[in-house]
Design goal:
With 262 residues, the chain is of the alpha/beta class. The protein has ten helices and eleven strands. α1 packs across α2 and α1 packs across α9.
Amino acid sequence: MPRYIVCLLAFLVTVVLAPGAAATDVKVMISAGFFSVDKELGLAFEKSTGHTLVTTRGPSIGDSPEAIPARLARGEAADVVIMDGVGVDLLDQRDLTRPGSRIPLAESFIGMVVRAGQPKPDISTMDGLRNTLLAAKSIAYSDSSSGTYLSTIGFKKLGVADEIAGKTRKVPGPPSGELVASVVARGEAEVGFQQVPELLHVSGVDFVGTVPSDVQPPTLYVGALPKNSQQSDAAIALLRFLSSADAAAVITKAGLRPLPPR
């Protein structure tokens, strides 16, 4: 068993679990950017606690009926949400979360991929990214937070919004949609943008890098309890588990940046 899993199991046993807590189903709504972390660490959580994570995926924001805010607004049940902080802000505004339940989990960044084997353009500067966008024959971005930011703010900051409007494509995400990298891998877009965890480890693409800081919005993945969470103790235990220092190795492997211990 990997050392970090051993440490996490010990953390759960000695710190997180409430004495005598009964095993239960914990309904988790989660966006794609943190899904791989939750999938890997969730197994250790279930093994140590006896709880079962029942996971529903959806975008953090956007107009998809599968988006987490839309799911909660129409009454779908969840004990905990894990998503982009912008999405949690939206839930707070709609009075769909419990005050004070927010727990930051990791920092994320927007990156870019090209089809495997294609030249990797330099996007480390604003000029480099601008030239890449103007030269690209087709551009894909997500229908969630990263794509919403780029299409409404980022491309305008770069001064290319009008020039590239006819060659961009918004890609609906999981569960019924797909990752932007999959579209690029099939050759249906020359370049693709999404949060780094959603670009890495996808076959058929090469990761180019992250976009410059001037068009890189501060993005935190955050956990919170919906207002009508029925398993709040288990939900809080899960979030404490995912935000512990021992989770840092898995978070880093997923392409996210761990946060300093709270």
